[in-house]
Structure formats: C-alpha cells, structure tokens
# Entry
Amino acid sequence: MSKIMTVDVLSSIKGAQPSETVNKLFEVIKKANTTNNSFNKNHNNAVSLDDLREDVVIDSPQAEKQIIIENFPKEKNGFLVVSKVIEE
Amino acid sequence: MNKEITCTQLVQERLDLLKSNTNNTVNSLLDTLALELAAKVDAKIANGQEIGLLEGIPFGIKDVYMVQGTYTTASSDLLKKYKSSYTATAIQKLFDAGAIPLVKENCDSFGHGSSSENTIFGAVKNAINPDLVGGGSSGGSAVNVAKDYTVFSIGGDTGGSVRQPAGYNNIYGLKPTYGRISRYGLMAYASSTDCVGPIAKSIEDIRIVLNVMSGKDIKDQTTYQSETILEDNILNADEIKTIGYFKNFIENDAIDAQVKSDFLASIEKIKAKGIEVKELDFFESDTLVSTYYTLAMAETASNLSRLDGTNYGARIEGDNLKDTYSITRSENFSEETKRRIVGGNQVLSQGFSDEIYLKGLNLRDQISDNFEKDFKEVDIILSPVTPNSPPKIGDSLSDPLAMYLSDAYTVGFSLGQLPTLTVPQGTETGLQITAAKNNDELVLKFANFLKDTI
# Structure
C-alpha cells in the first residue's frame, strides 16, 4: 500500500501548507487547452553522446577542499558531525 | 583610460560609494580583493604594458554567483555564512579579462521575487525613487549600475530578473539566448530558464561583457559555441524590415494607460522609419504566468532540496536527521521560498503531475511553437517590460499574486529561451527587444536603431 505523504513531509518544511495563491495559478493550467504534440518536443537540451565529457574523477584543488570543510556546520575532535540517522 | 585617475583611486571611490549607499544594494564588499587587483592594473599601466578592454573596470555580482572564498548568501538565512569553494565560469571569464569585482549584490532570496524585498539584507530601493522597489530579483545589481556604483553588474534572469529591474531603473539589461553563457556556479533556481545576464548603461558595454562571458563550457552541457558580436555588425539595422508586437499585451485592462499609449507612440515612430509593424496573437497573460511559475516551482523544489544543513548552511539540530532537515529548512527559508518549494512539490506529486506539471510542459511547447511561427513573419518582437510602473516598497510582499502577474511580459520569452534586451526607452519601465534563438546580435542591432529613433 502506498504511503500518502503530505507536502510538509515532501518539502521537509515543518507545518507547510499548500498556498491559495499558488493554487490559483494551478487552476489556470488545469483549464488551459493542450495540444496533441509529442511530449517535450521543443526541449532539445539533451546532450549528444559525442559531446559528453570524460567520465573521470577530477580531484579538487586544496583551496576548494579547505573551504568545503570550513562550510561544514559542525565539527568535533577533528570529525565532521552529522545528525543521528534513525531507522523507521 | 584617463590617466588622471589611477585604477586604485577609481576602485576606492566606487567602494566608498557602495559602502555609504542607502539603497541596500550590498550584501558584502570585496574590498581587499578589488584593491589588490586594482594595484596590479596600475602596475601594468606604469610598466607601459597593454591593458585589455575590461581591465580595471569595476563591476558587481548578484549574490547568487560563486566567487571562491567570498560569501555567497543568495540573500538567505540558510546560506548567510556560506563561502563559495569555486568561481562561476562566467565570472571567471570576466576576471581573466581583467575586470574588478567590487560587491556581491542584494537580490531576492534564491531569485524568488520580482522586487528584491524577499531578502535578509533589507529591501533594495529604486535608484530613481527610493520609495519604490528596485525590481527583482537582480535589484541590487540594477540599482548599482543606475547609481554608477558599478560600471556593469552581472544579474541572473530566470523569468525576467535582469530585464525587469533594468526597466525599473532605466538602464540596459540582457537575457541572452539560453545556453549562450555557462550557468556553472550560478545557484540554480529553475535550470531550464536560468540565464546569466549583463546589466549596464550602454549597448556597447552589454556587447563587450556578453562577448567575454559567452561560449561553450564543459561544466554546463547546455552551453553552445557562439560567434563574437562585432561592434561594426550592430551599427546598421537596415536588414530589419518587419517587427511585431503582441496585441493582447497591449489591448487589455491590466496595462497602465500611460504605458500603453507610450508603447503605441513608440510603434508609430518605428513605422515612420519605414519598418512594417505586425500585430501578433499570443497566449493570455495568466496562462503565461501560470505556466512559468508551475515549471519554475517544480524545478526550484528539486534544486533547493539539497539545502538541508548537512554539508553546509545554517543547520539547526533536531531529534534526528529528518527533524534536523525540516527545522533547518522551515526556520531558514523565507515565506516566498517556502511557498515555491511547496508549490513545486505539489505539482510533482502523483495525482497532480499529469494534470498540472505535464500540462505545463505541453503549454511551454505551444509557446515555443508560437514563437517559431512568429519569427517566420517578423525579425523582432517588441513589448513593454512591465504592465505597470514599479510598486511601492511593501506592496508586493502583501500581494504575491499581483507580483506574479507583474511578470506577464517577461516570462514568455524565458520559456522560449529567447534573447531579450530591456532598453531604457519607450515606456516608463522601458521596452523589451526579442529575436529568435541564438540571434542576440540582431537584438543589439535593433537596440542601436531604437536609440536613434525614439
């Protein structure tokens, strides 16, 4: 059985509720006419296979690594600390 | 360069102006970096070395671009202390050309807004009338240029965020063709319409900065290789024979009477130069706005899901990991950002996606088809930038629907991924010049023509 997830859970925002203003925008879309054009035909943003970059790991420069560590919110005894993960 | 003033003096003078400004345009000053770079330029001049076109030119950067080692806050509490670990491609290209960054500029948080009021740094005040909004989301950038604090600024345009503030502050602002400039290092709002856009006081400055930033980038695979736009190529607009405008943008109740009559007067002046002007049919404003916001919200919900306080950002600890995520996000995102994330997750959920999201994508295809059809008949589409003059500070926050609808004239061109330039002419908030995809040169060409015509 599928579990129903509310928007606050989906968005990871406590107490979040759908907005009336945004729902008004959605109503316009629901009422609009659609065509039978093939789906997504104008969105040719996909990258050609010939154009893909090499699938290699590029090591970050030391300066970059240092800033990434500085940005980490919590540190203890030289370790970066994350919140406790619980099994459900 | 006028040798009477050194680059260091120039940079110091602009930094002082930015520091003392009361328009709330500054999130952080890059004074140490700017003065170091200015000293290098002065040394080059003193040694008689040749300097480039942008060398020593002070510029501003919307606070959504990564610049290594600087705070990049997106005007949000969540990233208030976040430091970029790398530099955006577009900004790096400007550095390589010798331009000097002065400031990370105030904007709507994560680009979510049309007034630059949705920010933790205080509402940006309009350059012409400080009781009015600076426009958004790149409000700080537009005001800095209008006030001459920066020679040019780099904004970001997802649904009008460069063009509208440029219009509100009577300067030039370009949204290039999608993919012309790399988005690598621009904090993602809605990836399928996000564009890097220059804001400046002249067409020539826009051309130079656009050329420097353009080009294919392996780090943004939606980029393409474009031709450099030469100064001589945009001086003569004789090849432009036919332009069009959207009849329904002008013939409706939402447009201000003055904006309407000024726009039509501009059309008459263009006709008088022998250019044919065609009235075109287009989608209703509410359809355009709803399509844009539906897709943009879906994309931003996805893009901002990474901001959970785990690896970076202002984490607020809860009882466990999930609790930490939701407290961090509910406390640190603004009401507008939360509204868009929730809206995005609504349309992406099962049961809604077919009815709204996929239908939105279908409408976008229809809008693109419509543009393709139009550009078989006309070279340029001209439109007002906004239906009304800039609102007073405070008004947009209390009426988000009115704010969304104020984007009616800009969002369509974003969905079409077309090049569109705001010029400070024709109506109180300017005019938008749009051409077919990849035809940014024609846009600048027509802008030069309008400069001499209106």
The radius of gyration of chain A is 23 Å. The mean pLDDT of chain A is 84.
